[in-house]
Structure formats: structure tokens, C-alpha cells
């Protein structure tokens, strides 16, 4: 088959696969309850099942009715009674409790919502809020908060964030590549591998029945940046061969042949980085690791197959020959690094030790509501209701038998002691007893981070044990969210060790040298150590998004190191001395390494303009890691390769 016919067939097949993926991806809907963010098989998940086995499943919706002008609200007026009656008449409302009036002009009602047939609270929550607003008395307004509202709003906002972030990344990278290559064909082709990977990953996600979740929204921005960076290496090799006079077809053949091995190796190392996420007990995180790994493999495959076909069919203009840095300049740079190798390594080692020791000061503390902007409706409602009621979140204290003697008296003492714990506002309702003898008490807690709540929950269980209950259990959505956040963050830090091991093994096997594999790991681990250490020194706590950054970015930034070391090893096998081999590697892949780092820096950094705090934090740290990794590859890696060998070769 003629090359152009084969290329056309490749693009047609690629188009069909992408169309299938796009069809499924467009049908992806966010899960309004963020179910994949809830752990499976953990003590918290089992305790919720135990609670729902003894008591009817429910969730609490908190509603605040207040006068718009701040005037006194007559809780006994006919309009207010009608408002409460309308809420009590909803099929989804099992019980409605009116809280004591603690602020003039305000009334707080706490509704126990029953789930739908599918176990979801989303429609019930929306229905209750719509009813509350439709039947509110004139001159009043309604605020709604609580766990079910937070889940719905967070799912919606994160999906919306993805819809705005990806186009911004496309525009930034499009302009950047146009300025570098000055070719619309080349620029558009750069996006084919990543777009194909994103669409197929999304289509597969839909085919398997997985919804969008807060973590999967990071998939498209990550794959887009990685895929474009992979394309850059093909462009640069093609440019070099065309500059030497090769025809387009010859240059493409040579470029693909030269890049096949390092591209496979970079795909494996990046895949290893993402596989480190699959050990996490949170389904959304493990699923992200799998789909991101699949996307990287697809993007690499498309970069070696679809992109050359595109360029063969549509690229006509010979790229301009830009003057490259002379080999003598690269050799001079390499010898300069060699002369100061000890200093470079010493400075980096001191920084790594200092920042590594700062890890002991890292704190895990997430406050989901603070992900949202200060003017967000839910955040405003949560803060307003908390001012009136003291808080919006609740937890259940489950007290299985055997119960102590005179259990009702102990329950009163228990409620008093738990309420006295800092952060606990009050007992929401009288204790309930199941047919099996299990007691259930529900408490309202103040707004706080997960670290504070974790200590509060542990204290509540200790108080119950002191009162004679053998096996008290704190449970509920608030407990699971807090402990899942802690577990996710700590699990990611532990999983980072697995990621480092997998990346090191992949590099050592791919490069055929354990020494090069270990040396290549250092410039990539250092940026992660620096970022986490910097966060600790700055007093910033780890969140779900920032905890993932190590495993995700380690697999991404290692690609440039692989290209440098692969070229260096090839030059060494060709007989060059160390400094000459380093200079040759910088001459051949130094420019693409800088361009790919620029692409990753801009692509991943676009999110700093996002609306949500998690997007901004993830993007800022990712961009910092990319910039630090580039400096480490250009200065620290050559220093490591030449250290202790200065003067040994002439």
C-alpha cells in the first residue's frame, strides 16, 4: 500500500475511534453524590452499612428562613406554618425539626430526607429546596446547606471547572506552538494524540458505566498537556532531519524509528507514575490512575502513528532552518557543569535534606466547603446558617449492645459530655433505639477542617466507652468524608514510594543500566521533595488535590530525563566520553526538552486562573514542579553523570 494511502487509512480509522469516544464522552454525567469519592471496604463504609441496617437511611438538609430586611420573623405566623407544612408534606421528608431560634428574624429547619429507589438523595434534595423556595413567605429568603447540598454543588462546580479549563489550555498551547513552529498544520497535529487519548478514555469510561467525579475532571487537562509534549519530540526530530536535506517521508521514517524506543520508555515510566494511584482505597483516585495510564499509552501510540500520517498528508512547507547552538557551546556548558559538579550536587543535596526534614511538619487538613469561592451560594449559605445554628454538619454516634445498666440515664450523661467536646454544638434529636437494641444519637458540629473533626470523633468514641458502651462507633457522611480525606492524602504520600520504585525499575530496564535508572530518578524526585517541603515550611496543609501531585507529576516530568539519558547512553555506546556524550545529548534533545517543559508549564499552569481553590493549588504546584525539573535536568543531571569522573577520561 502506498505511504499516502496508508496514512489516509490511518487517519480515517483514528477519526472513527475518536468519534466513538466523543459520543460516549459527551454522555458522561457528573455523579451528584460523588459516590466514587467515598471509600469502599473501609471501617467508615462498613459503619454506614451497619447504621442503615439498624435504622432507616437518611441524610440531613438544613434550611434557613429569614427576613430579607433583618426584621423579626414570626415563627407562629400562618405563612411560616404553611411553609413548614409544605416541607413536611413532601414524600422525601421523613422528619422535620425546627431548631430553637437563636437569631432574630431567622428560623432553621432540619429535614431528614429519605433516599430514592436507587439510593440517591439528589432529586429529593433538589425537590425539597425548590419547595422551600416556592412556598416561602413574602419578604423572606431561603438558604440551604448540609451534606447532600454540598455533594451536588461540588459535583456541578468541578464539572463546570473542567469545561472552562480545557478550552483555556487549548488556546494557550495553540498560541505557544504557533509562535514556535509558525505552521498551522504542525500546530493542529500536535493536539491529535492527546485529543484521541482523551476521547477514547472518556468513551471507555462511559462504556463501563463510570460517571464523572471530582478526580476524573483532572484527566483531560493532564492528558492534553502530556500528549502535546510528546508531539514536540517528533516535530524536533523531523525538523533536524529536514534541515539535513531529507524528504518529508524519509524524515518521518527516521524520526519515528529514533523515537520508538524512548517514547515507549517514557510511556512506561509515566504509566508507572499513574499506577501508583491505583492502590488508593478511594475508587475515584484508583480509577483516575487507570484511565490516565491508559490515556498516556494511547497518546504515545498516536504520536508514533497518527501524527506522522497527518504530517505526511498535510505538511508541505519545509520548516525553516534555525541556527542551532554549536557543538562547542554544548561542550563548553557541559565542562562548566563538570567543573562545578560538586557544588551543584552539594547545593541540591542540602536543599533536599532541609526540605525533606520539613516533611515532618506536613499537616493533613481539608475543608471541602472552602474549595468554593467566597461568593458561592452554598458557601454563603453554610456560613450564614452556621452563624445562626452553630454549624450545618452532623455525625451519628452508634451504640451497639450490650448497653450499660440504666441505659437511658447513661444516654443523657453521654449527650451532655459529647456536647461539651469543643466543636460539638448540640444533640440534634432524642436518641433512637433499633429493634436489635442499638442506640443512635445525632450531634451537630461546628465548621472545621478534617484534622479537627478527626480528633473530635475520636474523643466522642472515648467518651462513650467511658460511659460503659463497649463498642461505640461514630458514623455518617460527615465522618466518612473527613476520614476518607485523611486516608486519601496519607495514602498518596505512602503511594509515592511505590511510584518511585516503579519509575526507577522502568528506567533501569528501559535504559539497560541500573546506575542510569537511579541517577535519572534524582532530578525528578527532588522537585516533589521541594514542593512538599516548601508547603510544610509555608504552613500550608495538604488537601486531596495537592496530595496527588507527587505521584501524578513524577510520572510526567521523568519523560524529559528519559530522552536525555537515552540519547546519552546511545552516544556512550558509540564511543564518546562522558562530557562529549552529555554535550551531544543536549545538542540533540536539549531544545525539545525545553519546549516540552514550556508546554507542560503553560498547560498545567493554566488552572491557576480557575474558579475553584483545588484547581488553582494543583496547577500552581504542577507548574512549579515542571520548572524545577527542567533546571534539575539541565544542571543536576549532567553534574551527576560527570561527578567523580572529571579528568578520568581524556
| CATH 2nd-level architecture of the domain at 1-30 and 153-323 | Up-down Bundle
CATH class division of the domain at 1-30 and 153-323: Mainly Alpha
How are helices and strands ordered from N to C?
HHEHEEHEHHHHHHHHHEHEEEHEHHHHH
Number of helices: 20
CATH fold category name of the domain at 1-30 and 153-323: Multidrug efflux transporter AcrB transmembrane fold
Tell me the CATH superfamily of the domain at 1-30 and 153-323. Multidrug efflux transporter AcrB transmembrane domain
Which term fits the overall shape? elongated
Radius of gyration: 29 Å
- Portion of residues in helices? 55-70%
The average pLDDT score comes to 87
Structural class, by secondary structure, is: alpha+beta
Beta strands, count: 9
**Low-confidence regions:** none
Largest sheet: 5 strands, antiparallel
Beta-strand residue percentage: 5-15%
